[in-house]
């Protein structure tokens, strides 16, 4: 987010408060007030401002980062809000209230309406550039978390099927949930979901051209407790060397990942540790702790 993370925190807490969802700030770190003279201009401009914040949406963690406009999110990664009538009282009413809050100042991509796959669904990009899919799910189906990251693959890409199959082999303890193909093209995935290392996500293919693609503005985060875990995921997910920076990498499908240590470790960085982090590609815990 281009310097708007603090405003966004308040916006999401208030928006999800309209449906009684408990949103809390788990961790928050700030850019150092004093930055080294050799720091890039964009880093100096953020001095003292919020660097990262991790929000919990009823137990589901979503991270926000203050960054430059070059890292604006796109609809290729969105957050799907699972409004389950078996869990949420008056789920259709909750969908309308949350939609009103998130769409205020945003851009509607699919109106909140009835569709063949759901009696109440809508897709909106909020005022801060984050894309949300609100869906009223069938309470007779298998339960899913309140919020799921969702990947949208465009025509000409390697596609949702190949990407999800690859991720299933990367993350221990993973499993495929549903996978449905387009009626007129079995090669394209209309909808799929999978559990990757304990986290449910969805993935689908677009049958129409898209004026956007995956960028580092939206990424998926992996919490690695040891250097061995960082090395494991980095080796399997980093496929674009020029995209490697500060724990960020990009895989062979265009999706960006953050392979990071615990929030507590990153929230107490000294100016020297912060400067060292800014020079890293894959995070080296030994070097970071030695500063």
From TrEMBL:
SUPFAM superfamilies: Glyoxalase/Bleomycin resistance protein/Dihydroxybiphenyl dioxygenase. Residues 4-135, 147-259 form the PhnB-like domain. Pfam families: 3-dmu-9_3-mt. It comes from the Bacteria. CDD domains: PhnB_like. This is VOC family protein. It comes from Actinomyces bowdenii.
